Structure formats: structure tokens, C-alpha cells
Amino acid sequence: MKKIISLLSFFVCIFSFTACINPVGGTEQYKKEIDYVNHANGDYSIKVTNETSKKLVAFKGAPSVSNMIGGIPANASNHGLPLKKSVFTTTSDFVLYVVTEDDYLENIDNLAALTDIPYARLYAYYNTNAANNYVYKISSVMGGSGKIVLQNNTDYNIELRKDGPNGETIGYTAARTINTTFYVNPDDYYIFPVFRKYDQTLNEIVTVFPVDEDGDPKVRSAHVDSANPMEINARDFTAGVKFTAGYSYVTIVNSSSDGVSFYDGANSTPVLTSTGGKIINSGKSLTFAIPMELVAADSSTGHYQYAESKSYSQYRIGSVMGGVTNSVYLSGSDSTLFTFEAGKNYIFTVSGSDYKHLNVELTNTDTVSF
Question: In terms of pTM, does the model score above 0.85?
């Protein structure tokens, strides 16, 4: 009888202990705490498109309770994550960690365990003084059984892109990090490295591409599956190579009396900065990236390189009120070309008493450093 009572007492203790750790309804309660509401039309922090069929949970930095932003529904487009004042306290770039809801719930008592095995890592930016309109994309190739392992013992932040320097983003890792693993669907991969950093002076993310001695973008290729991981050493991209800007930059200083935007031709949708800004308030400035073309230097050998300059005539400035209809051209007219050189920043100042009487002039030119 004493043995039976002892056994009953033992099981009661075990049940009580388990209930304390994982109370009845605990998982469902944790699910309810994830904010999956689309805040895009209200107060949001950043926007995300989820091309996968997984429900995801996003963090600003390494996964932790204090860093959690909110949830991203499966197949969501332009999903606005909530603006948590305790998480987004200042303007800054950061690593956007994304994990599946299942992994989040399984590791709820030890979220730090997800730091090295997230579903995706993206380089992101939040601006306290501008609308964060840029939409970050979580690629459909993520979350598979294949592995791409990056050793980044360099001084550069690196973004890996698929099928071209301007292709979709596989993932991101900060400088001086090793064994960063990206889980991807089995396939043939052509991986192009891109180096990125936030320039506080420009308030813009600066992007450069490593190229070889012929000017071709550096690339790694391999078939990736569960038995064949792709190992990448970032030093292979930096040792003995040179960097090309791939972009020119335009800073618009607004000295007019109205807010203005930057337009590409007759397109009525304003151009976004890489950090998501599109309206330049009176007395403020924003910087925009102008892409250089990847051109065939020798079509017989398939040799491509980034152009050192590009001439455009279509870029223009219009007020928020007047839009592209009442806009003025950076070059002076729609038939006058303006040449942008890679790695240069062109500073234009806008003046005018109202949206119908805007003027724009080039006031300075700087070289962008990386």
C-alpha cells in the first residue's frame, strides 16, 4: 500500500512539474501573443512579403522575447509588421531574423537556440523620421533541406543573391561571423555576393559588388541538396579583387515650401530610397540610388561588367501636391541627358514658393566611400 501511495505521489509531482513548465493551453496562448495583423495602413515598422507557405515570426536582431516584432502570415504580400516602441527606438539598420511559428513555439523557453538556425536573415533598416515603404521579400527558395554555409571572417556585411548581383536575396550575415547557415530548396545555385552598409551621412544603404580582374562580378555555383551543402568563404570574394559601386547616388535637398518626391520619368509612383523613404519634407533631404547597367564588355566570351557611368534624362522632381504632372527635370529638360558616374553622389537643391513653381539645380558632387 505504501508503494502505491509513493507511486501516486511521484506521478502527481511529475504532472505538477510538467504543468508548471508547459501549462495546459500554453501553446495556444503563445500563438495568441503573436501579432499577425497587417498594420500596413496604420502604424507599422517595416513591410514584408512572404513567398513561402509557412507562418513566420520576425525579430529585430537575434531571437528573444524583447526583440520580437510580430508574425507574418503564409503567402502574405506587403504585410506591415507592428511598430513596437520598445523595439524600434531609433533610426538604424539591423538583421531581420525570421523563424517559423513551429520553431518559435518549440523553442519558446530558449529562443537563443534559433539564432544560428533561422528560417531567413535579411538586412533591414528602420527610419524614425520617414515612412518605411520598402518591402522586404522572404524568398520561396528558403526553408528547404539544402544548406549554404557562409564563413565571413571579413570586415564587410555580406548579402548573398541568387542568379545575379541584382537577384533575389538568399540571406545576409554581418561582418566577422562564421558558420552562418542558410537552408534552401535543393537546386542548382549561382550565388553572387553583395557588400552593403548603412551610410549615416547619406542616410542611405550603400551597395558595392566584388569583381575579378576582368571586371566580371564574382560568383559561386554548385548543386545544393541535403547531401551536398555549398561552402562559401567570404575571403574568396575580397582577396585580390576590386569593388565596383554599381550605383550612383542623388541627394535631393528640399529648400522649397512644399514636400517633394523623386520620379523616374512619367511614372506617377515616386522612387523609394533603399531605406523606404519617398517624401522629402521642406527643409529635409533624401538620397536615392541610380543603378549602373551590367553591360557586355565582350559578347564573344560572355564577359560582363558594370558601366562606369550612365546618362539619363527622365529623372525629375515634383511636389507632393503637384506630383509628376508639375515636375521639373534634373537635367533641365526631357531631351537633355545628365551623366551619372558610379560611386558619385550628386546633390541637387530644390527651391520654389509653391508646387507650380519649382526649380532644381546641381549644387555639389561628392565621392561615396565604402
Answer: no
For residue 284, give the nearest of 108, 131, 163, 174 by alpha carbon.
Answer: 131
**pLDDT score for 200:** 76
pLDDT in tens, 200-211: 777 778 888 888
Measured CA to CA, the distance from residue 291 to residue 270 in angstroms comes to: 16
Q: How many residues does the chain have?
A: 370
Q: Higher-confidence residue: 232 or 244?
A: 232
DSSP 172-234: EE-TTEEEEEEEE-SEEEEEEEEEEEEETTTTEEEEEEEE-TTSPBP-EEEEEBTTBPEEEET
Which tens digits make up the pLDDT trace of 155-168? 888 999 999 888 89
Which cell numbers hold the place of 14?
A: 511529475
How does 233-263 read in b/e, with b if 16+ C-beta sit within 10 Å?
bbeebbeeeeebbbbbbbbbbbebebbbbbb
> What is the sign of the dihedral through the CA atoms of 58, 63, 66 and 67?
negative
* DSSP bridge pairs for 296: 304
Cα three-residue angle 291-296-299, rounded to 5 degrees? 165
Question: What is the pLDDT averaged over residues 9-22?
Answer: 42
What pLDDT, on a 0 to 100 scale, did the predictor assign at position 13?
Answer: 44
> How many alpha carbons fall within 13 Å on the CB side of residue 242?
10
- Classify strands 44-50 and 135-138 as parallel, antiparallel or unpaired: parallel
Using the predicted structure, report yes or no on whether residue 217 has a pLDDT greater than 50: yes
Distance CA 321, CA 158 (A): 39
pLDDT in tens, 234-258: 888 877 666 777 789 999 999 999 9
Beta bridge partners of 98: 58, 120
| DSSP of 331-347 | TSSTT--EEEETTEEEE
Torsion of CA 304, 309, 312, 318, to 10 degrees: 120
3-state DSSP assignment of residue 31: helix
Q: Is 182 exposed, middle or buried (0-12, 13-18, 19+ CB in 10 A)?
A: buried
- Name the one residue in this structure whose C-alpha cell is 538604424: 92
For 227, what's the count of Cα atoms within 13 Å in the CB-facing half-sphere?
0
